[in-house]
Every structure is written in structure tokens, then in C-alpha cells.
Amino acid sequence: MKNKGNKQKTKKKGSENVFGCDLTEHLQGSGQDVPQVLQKCAEFIEQYGIVDGIYRLSGVTSNIQRLRYS
């Protein structure tokens, strides 16, 4: 039987940094409302229609039908 030993995790949970910096500070410095990587992903999905209904939200069927037919 192999002894796996104790591996220490170096990544800390709950980190507020994204790509090495604070997201709020990055957006304020860049003048953007949405991170560029998310904007590019959304543009690609909308242009090529990769997945039908990707932006759909789950909800109560009766409310969805009411909205659909109003």
C-alpha cells in the first residue's frame, strides 16, 4: 500500500484576487464594467450560438409560461 503523505495546499480559499490582482481595482483602472475575458466569451457564444438557452434562468413553470405568453 502506498503512503500518500500529507500534501499541503498552497492555494488559499476565498482569495479576492483574479489573475493576480483585485478585480474591482482592475476594472476601475481599465475603465471597463465587465472583465474583457467575460466580454469576449459572451460575444463568441452569441455569435456562434454554441449552446441554446445558456442564459436561461430556472424558475417556476407557471411563471415562465405566463411570461412567455403575455
TrEMBL record:
* Pfam families cross-referenced by the UniProt entry: RhoGAP
Keyword annotations from UniProtKB, A to Z = GTPase activation
A GO molecular function annotation here is: GTPase activator activity
Q: Where is the Rho-GAP domain?
A: 21-70
GO BP annotations of the record are: small GTPase-mediated signal transduction
* Bilayer-spanning residue ranges: none
* GO cellular component annotations of the record: lamellipodium
Q: What is this protein called?
A: Rho-GAP domain-containing protein
